[in-house]
Amino acid sequence: MSLEIDRVSKSFDGKSAVLGDVSLSVEDGEFLALLGPSGSGKTTLLNIISGLTAPDRGKLVLNDEDITSVPAARRRFGMVFQSYALFRHMSVADNIGFGLRVMDRAERPSKADRKARVEELLAMIDMAGLGDRYPAQLSGGQRQRVAMARALAISPRLLLLDEPFSALDALVRRDLRRSVRDLQQRVGVTAILVTHDQAEAFEVADRVAVMRDGAIEQIGTPDELRARPATPFVESFLGLGP
Ligand code: ADP
C-alpha cells in the first residue's frame, strides 16, 4: 500500500506546532524511517498515521483512499512498540494469533487456517516449537520477534514501528534489526519506523526522513543522505561533520 501524507499539522493545547505542514509519500512495499532527535515530532506523526492522534489540518491517503477521519481504515494496521505489550497471560501462539481471532466473522480464517498461519509465523521468526511458551519465559529479543509476528499475522496494510529496538541491548538489537528488515521484505508490507538512532535507520530503511522541530529537514536513501546532507543539522545529526 502507498501512503500519502499531505500538509499535516498538529499542536497540543494551543501551543506552538509540534508538526507544521508535513508532507511525505511512502511507496508500496517501501521501508521508511522517521529519524530525528527527541521532541522532533516523530511519534506524533506516527500516531497521526495510526489514528491515535487526530491532525489539526492535512490529509492522509492510503492507496487513493482518504483515511484522515476513517478509524476503521486502520484496523488492518500492524503495530510494534518499544515495550512489547504482549499479553502476559497468553501463550506465544495465542499472542500471534490474537489479531486473527478478533477479525470480523466474514474475514476471520478458520481455526485450522489460523493455526497454520501461526505455525508459519513461528517458523519465520525462528521460534518453531515455542508456541506453548509464555512471554515471561522469553528473552527480550524473542518477545520483540513475537510482537513482530503478531503484527504481521493479520497481513497488515501498513506496519508501524515505534522504537521497537530501544529496550534491547546492543547485540540483540543488531540481530533484531536484520530480522525485522528480512520479515518486512518477505511479507512485502509497507513499513514506517520511528527511531532516534541513525545507524538503525540506515540499516533497515529504504529511505530516511530526517525530522527537526516538527518538519522534515531532508528525505532520501541512506546513500543520498550520506553523500549529500542538505543542511548542517542533517550533517551533524548523522555524524557526518568534520
Ligand atoms: P519525538 O517522537 O520525535 O520524540 P514527539 O512527537 O513525541 O517527538 O513530541 C514532539 C513534541 O510534542 C514534544 O515537545 C512533546 O512534548 C509534544 N507532545 C507530544 N504529545 C503531546 C501531548 N499529547 N500533549 C502535549 N504535548 C505533546
TrEMBL record:
<dbReference type="GO" id="GO:0016887">
    <property type="term" value="F:ATP hydrolysis activity"/>
</dbReference>
<dbReference type="InterPro" id="IPR027417">
    <property type="entry name" value="P-loop_NTPase"/>
</dbReference>
<keyword id="KW-0547">Nucleotide-binding</keyword>
<dbReference type="GO" id="GO:0005524">
    <property type="term" value="F:ATP binding"/>
</dbReference>
<keyword id="KW-0067">ATP-binding</keyword>
<dbReference type="InterPro" id="IPR003439">
    <property type="entry name" value="ABC_transporter-like_ATP-bd"/>
</dbReference>
<keyword id="KW-0813">Transport</keyword>
<dbReference type="InterPro" id="IPR050093">
    <property type="entry name" value="ABC_SmlMolc_Importer"/>
</dbReference>
<feature type="domain" description="ABC transporter">
    <location>
        <begin position="3"/>
        <end position="238"/>
    </location>
</feature>
<dbReference type="Pfam" id="PF00005">
    <property type="entry name" value="ABC_tran"/>
</dbReference>
<protein>
    <submittedName>
        <fullName>Sulfate transport system ATP-binding protein</fullName>
    </submittedName>
</protein>
<comment type="similarity">
    <text>Belongs to the ABC transporter superfamily.</text>
</comment>
<dbReference type="InterPro" id="IPR003593">
    <property type="entry name" value="AAA+_ATPase"/>
</dbReference>
<dbReference type="InterPro" id="IPR017871">
    <property type="entry name" value="ABC_transporter-like_CS"/>
</dbReference>
<dbReference type="GO" id="GO:0015697">
    <property type="term" value="P:quaternary ammonium group transport"/>
</dbReference>
